[in-house]
Amino acid sequence: MATRITQLAVRDIRFPTSRSLDGSDAMNAAPDYSATYVTLHTDAGDGHVGHGLTFTIGRGNEICVAAVKSLEPFIVGKTLQDITADMGAFWRAITGDSQLRWLGPDKGVIHLATAAIVNAVWDLWAKSEGKPVWKLLVDMSPEQLVRCLDFRFVTDALTPDEAVAMLRRAAPGKAAREREMLAQGYPGYTTSAGWLGYTEDKIRRLAREGVAEGWTHFKQKVGGNLEEDMRRAAILREEIGWDRHLMMDANQVWDAAVENMRKLAAFDPMWIEEPTSPDDILGHAAIRERIAPIGVATGEHCHNRVMFKQLLQAGAIDYCQLDAARLGGLNEVLIVVLLAAKFGVPVCPHAGGVGLCEYVQNVSLFDYIAVSGSLDGRVLEYVDHLHEHFVEPVVIREGHYMPPKRPGYSIEMHAESLRQFEFPNGPAWA
Question: Residue 26 above 80 pLDDT?
Answer without folding.
Answer: no
